[in-house]
Structure formats: C-alpha cells, structure tokens
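Let us practice reading a record.
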Amino acid sequence: MRDVAAATAPAFTPGLLTPTLPLQIAQRIGLAIVEERYAPGERLKEVELAAAFGVSRASVRESLRILESRGLVRILPQRGAQVTRLSREELENLFEIRAVLLGLAGRDAARRFEPTDRKALAARLGALGTALGDPLEYARASAAMVDAVARLSGNVQLAHMIDGFAQRIGRYTRLGLQSVERRSRSLASWKKLVAALAARDQDAAESISRRLALENRDAALVEIERRLRRELRQAP
C-alpha cells in the first residue's frame, strides 16, 4: 500500500480536520491519482485507505463519492471504487473549457494588476525554473501558477471554477509536461504571460493564457496516443 496519506507536506490530523475530513481525504487521494500513484483502472480499497488515514470506512466512502463527482473515481455496484481511465474525448473537452476560463482569468488579472503583485509572480516563475528538470515538480509549480493568476483576477467565482476541476484536468496537464523541451516552452510562455500582466496588456494576457492551455492539450494528446499504441502492442 503506497503512502497516500503522506503525499503532501501538511501534517494530517483527524481530530483537527473532523468537520471536513472526507474532503481532506479526497484531496489526498485525488493528488495520488493525478500523479499516477494510483493507475487508471486501479481499484481503490476502502479497508486499506481507512487504515492508511486512520479513519473510518464511512469517511473513506464519502471521500470516494467526492472523487466520483470530480470524475477521478468510478463507483461500481458490488465492486467498489476504481480510478477512471484517461480519455481523449475528456481531455479535449476539459481543455476547451480550461482555455476559456484561463483566458478570462488572464484578462482580469492584467486589468487589476498592481506593482505589488510582481513579487509574488516572480517567486512563482522562480519555482517553475527550479522545477524544470522534474516533470512532477514542474506540474505542481504550474498548477500553483494557475492558481496565482486565478486569484489575481479578483473574480472569486471564476477562481472557484478553475479550482473545481483542477485535479481532474491535472491528470492530463501532467502528461503534457513529460518532456523537458515541452516544459521549457511552457516556462517561456509563463514568462510572457507575467510580462503581459505587468504591462496590463489584457489582450495579450488572455491570448497567452489560452495558448498555454491549448499547447498543453496538444502535448497531452500525443502522450495519450503513445500510451494507446503501447497498450495495443502489449495486448495478448
């Protein structure tokens, strides 16, 4: 049993988190799914998860229902929960939505940009640069950058929508950032976006934000196709 409970830095303390315990557990399991510590199609066993987190099976069951609502888990009668499989159609649909949402966030963030915002974005860019050699860390830093821009937009509802399916789309985002060449292009685009935000160029910020999403979509599609070909070769 992999150590899903320790997947993120903050200490997990059931006593303190009881009011939102299933949501906290769902976040941890969701991260493990995004990072493929649970493979697509793999069964999630309530007993093992309950033991790993030190909670009741009822709490785990509720967390799995949350993950089902996010499209990360499928709960089958008499068979329990399993990780949903990656889908080309889902990938394309999610990124179409994401491109629009990130474009709006970029435009609003440029309109509202203040000189004091520059330092926070510079730190995020620094984290991206530091993570360039590690696809997993880069994907995490990229997700943090998306969150930062969404928050700078000042549109609470928009930021909530972007965050609402962050894990679901994160599975595909990570696939699109597998090569160092792709990550280098992504970093260059992020730098251009930060420059557009600082210049308060709303059109450029929207355009670059959309392009970031669509370029990652295209890269993820290539990886999905590669996996499908490999599975066909391995099939009996």
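A brief commentary: The longest strand covers residues 73-76.
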